[in-house]
What we know:
Protein Transport Mog1p, Chain A; two-stranded parallel sheet; alpha+beta
Amino acid sequence: MRTKNSLIIALVMLVAFGSVALWVRQGLRFSVAAPTQKLSGFPKSVDGWQGTEEVLEEGVAKILSATDILSLRFDRGAEAPVIVHASTWTDPDSVRNACPHHPDICYQAHGWTIQQRENMEVEVERLGKIPVQSIVMRRGDQQVIVAFNYRIADNVYTDEKTARAMHLQFFGKPVWPAVTKLMIQVEGPDIASVKPKIEKFVQAFYRWYQP
């Protein structure tokens, strides 16, 4: 009798686990709505900074596999240039990934090492205070500060754990929003010295970008 009961319990648990797995798979089956804006429309003039298109290294666009890519270099006088890069993904696998092509992975794969990391908040019209993570990267004698975040709908985040929590609001829906990554790179001795530039371009981008 004990063996029979154990078998029944095992069968019930197997069915339950199978049902949960099926429910999760169905909840993660979706298409992705394309944003209404093209990244190429981002203004090439920001508070005296003039932007020119940056040519991506060979193969980078293919590796990114993004639907839309923006890469601009902004110059103003003798100041260190600011590189603004943004990518939008509309394929479900990348959206499920939450943080596609995270700077940690991309930069370290090209020989950069992480020296310091700092989280900050930037006040943006319509969105309020949004998170931005800044990382000091070094490769040989070159040092850059890379600031980034991701956006899905009106949710902005910098890490996968937060992204997963935000995904719950879309779980089970047949259509999800696209994911866009904003990344800003500038040379400098430390994060504090380039923070005003980071804030300026984060605000400029999100003031313009309304997917």
